[in-house]
Specification:
497 residues, alpha/beta, Aldehyde Dehydrogenase, Chain A, domain 1, Aldehyde Dehydrogenase, Chain A, domain 2, 2 domains, seven-stranded mixed β-sheet, six-stranded mixed β-sheet, 16 helices, 23 strands, binds nicotinamide-adenine-dinucleotide
């Protein structure tokens, strides 16, 4: 696999200008090969200050604030066009940085462009509301941008997750400072270039890479930041939520998960085994919605587990740009080491490693952060490996006896992001779906997503929703107006309403 070693560090974007001369850099290592990809300029607290001020100024200017919705929609559609034109560049930057296989990276670009088109259509058609009056007046509800939105993204699917935030925040008329994860900065930077080329006024969309521990607090606590949109781990999300709470600004939090994937004996077991394999191993398990806790009804447990083992053994672990590769490396060596530590810990505690539990033996993969698809059994839902998010290709398999036993286990976790149910009994599907603590339930399917459907979690998996019409409203604040139709003042407490 070729890498793009570039002697000049990749610059970042503030106020429509490319910032090249920085004192510190992020050295980017390809997780598939261990080779250095390139260096990226890293922002400081003063860059954050400049980016927020620039977003604030640009978002207040009439050229952006008063832009008519159909004109804003044209710009969003242009961004989608440019994303598709530059899809190879965008996909390649993600593949080099987090090791996701080529096909998945390309599809993320296509889906990201679709998100911009959806937001374009939505903002052109979403109206204000006239609400029922209780007097001689007209009551209206209008939706306005927050001002400056701080968008903070993780490394697992930067293209998808950045598009979810940026498309909706631009549609809603905000200014934005994006802080991508240090492992995956360049797709966000390229999106900044595309936005400029598509006609987003300079300063509206700024991108400042850097370690969250160094510049994250400066961004979230900046007085001009009026909303935070964060996707990442639960502990960082909690910290951001605390900071946002002190400022009394909203924080949309898309956090971690440890999702139950449930197979009843009456399900189509072939389809369920196919889905259970994809649900955990796609993206090398680095998916917040991964079906990482598998619950199988005891009478078909052995049969279903052998079916999944057979499918997992056939998966192709390879370099991300190898034709037919299905699993690439973990996004970083530290992440691979964490996965290894978790599986080794479970093994020491008596878990049975049915397949995997080791690095690949193929010498071509020896320098990368690879780990084989792993199925862990002989554990309870209370065990550490079943309770902690691993974010790797590790499936925790557990049997259940009946619906009560299942519900006890499935909801016994701090997370509540996604879930899946396989059964031929529609009444049971309804009962279980309603009883699960999860923001998303897939019934006889798994990992279906739509840009038109709200996405988000219950419990420690987050707060608020992105995507869909609700996702655009997330980036707007509500203003209510009362317009008198009387010639004299007829309001106040003395009038019964
Ligand atoms: P992370 O929480 O370590 O980092 C996420 C982002 O936050 C990065 O950009 C990081 O630099 C930044 N950050 C770190 N400390 C900060 C601080 N003090 N202030 C502001 N920003 C700070 O998460 P990660 O390891 O990059 O990503 C993996 C996690 O993301 C997993 O838990 C996964 O489940 C979650 N995730 C959730 C969703 C979802 O939609 N629910 C989607 C993808 C990933």
């Amino acid at each position: 696999m070729s890498t793009a070693t570039d002697v000049r560090p990749v610059p970042f974007l503030i106020g429509g200008e490319w910032i090249k001369d920085t004192s510190s850099h992020i050295t980017h290592v390809n997780p598939a090969t261990g080779e250095v990809n390139y260096q990226v300029c890293a922002g400081t607290e003063s860059d954050i200050d400049a980016a927020v001020k620039s977003a604030h100024e640009a978002a207040r200017k009439p050229a952006w604030r008063n832009m008519l919705p159909h004109v804003r929609a044209q710009i969003l559609n242009k961004i989608a066009d440019l994303m598709l034109e530059r899809s190879d560049l965008l996909a390649r930057s993600q593949m080099l940085e987090n090791g996701k296989v080529w096909k998945e990276c390309k599809n993320q670009v296509i889906n990201g462009a679709a998100t911009f088109r959806y937001c374009a259509a939505a903002i052109e058609t979403l109206g204000s509301e006239i609400t029922p009056p209780r007097g001689n007046y007209l009551a209206m509800t209008v939706y306005e941008p927050w001002g400056v939105v701080a968008a903070i993204t993780p490394w697992n699917s930067p293209i998808t997750l950045t598009c979810n935030k940026i498309a909706a925040a631009l549609a809603a008329g905000n200014g934005i400072v994006l802080k991508p994860a240090s492992y995956t900065p360049t797709s966000g930077i390229e999106l900044g270039r595309i936005a400029l080329d598509a006609g987003v006024p300079p300063g509206v969309f700024n991108v400042v890479p850097g370690a969250g521990s160094k510049i994250g607090d400066a961004l979230v606590s900046h007085p001009l930041v009026r909303m935070v949109s964060f996707t990442g781990g639960t502990e960082v999300g909690r910290r951001i939520s605390e900071m946002a709470g002190r400022k009394i600004i909203p924080a949309v939090l898309e956090l971690g998960g440890k999702s139950p994937h449930i197979i009843f004996a009456d399900a189509d077991l072939n389809a369920a085994a196919d889905a259970a394999t994809v649900a955990i191993f796609e993206g090398t398990g680095q998916s917040c919605t991964a079906g990482s806790r598998l619950f199988v009804e005891r009478k078909v447990y052995d049969q279903v587990i052998s079916m999944i083992m057979e499918r997992a053994r056939a998966l192709r672990v390879d370099l991300p740009d190898a034709p037919g590769a299905q699993l690439g490396p973990s996004a970083s060596f530290s992440q691979r080491d964490f996965i290894e530590k978790m599986v080794d810990g479970a093994r020491k505690e008596g878990a049975e490693i049915l397949i995997g539990g080791l690095r690949p033996t193929d010498p071509r993969l020896a320098k990368g952060a690879f780990y084989m698809p792993t199925i862990v059994a002989g554990i309870t839902n209370k065990s550490n490996i079943a309770q902690q998010e691993i974010f790797g290709p590790v499936l925790c398999a557990m049997p259940f006896d009946n619906e009560d036993d299942l519900m006890q286990q499935a909801n016994d976790i701090s997370y509540g992001l996604a879930s899946g149910i396989w059964t031929a009994d529609y009444k049971r599907a309804w009962r279980v779906a309603r009883a699960l603590d999860a923001g998303m339930v897939w019934i006889n399917t798994y990992k279906q997503f739509s840009t038109a459907s709200p996405f988000g979690g219950f419990k420690d998996s987050g707060l608020g929703r992105e995507k869909g019409l609700q996702g655009i409203r997330t980036y707007q604040q509500v203003k209510t107006m009362f317009w008198s139709m009387s010639d004299t003042f007829d309001g106040g407490f003395s009038i019964a309403k």
